[in-house]
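Supplementary Methods. Inverse-folding protocol.

Structures were first reduced to a discrete structure-token string of length 113. This string, shown here, constituted the complete conditioning input.
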């Protein structure tokens, strides 16, 4: 039996410390294997404890990282940031960013600079 809090802590560590979200091919089974649980267990854990689907959880992690990069270096292009944070395309990045923040990445950067 796996301890929910320990798995959540390791999940956070993989996202924050190891930046596993940067892998554009990251999927449920890959992340579950890193946590030594099944994909079903991971999906259930994210849904019940974090109130999100797996894909929305990963998107949010990527967008949070992108927000930091947008503010840290005004010279880094939006395309470069989208690729650095694990998005497969600039269009998927824009859609996820706007869905999460309500503004485009460029507008986010302008509003906060």
């Amino acid at each position: 039996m796996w301890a929910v809090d320990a798995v959540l802590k390791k999940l956070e560590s993989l996202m924050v410390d190891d930046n596993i979200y940067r892998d554009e091919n990251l999927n449920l089974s890959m992340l579950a294997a890193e946590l030594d649980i099944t994909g079903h267990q991971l999906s259930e854990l994210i849904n019940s404890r974090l109130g999100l689907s797996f894909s929305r959880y990963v998107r949010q992690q990527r967008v949070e990282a992108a927000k930091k990069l947008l503010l840290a270096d005004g010279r880094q292009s939006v395309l470069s940031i989208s690729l650095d944070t694990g998005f497969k395309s600039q269009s998927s990045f824009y859609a996820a960013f706007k869905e999460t923040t309500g503004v485009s990445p460029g507008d986010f950067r302008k509003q906060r600079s």
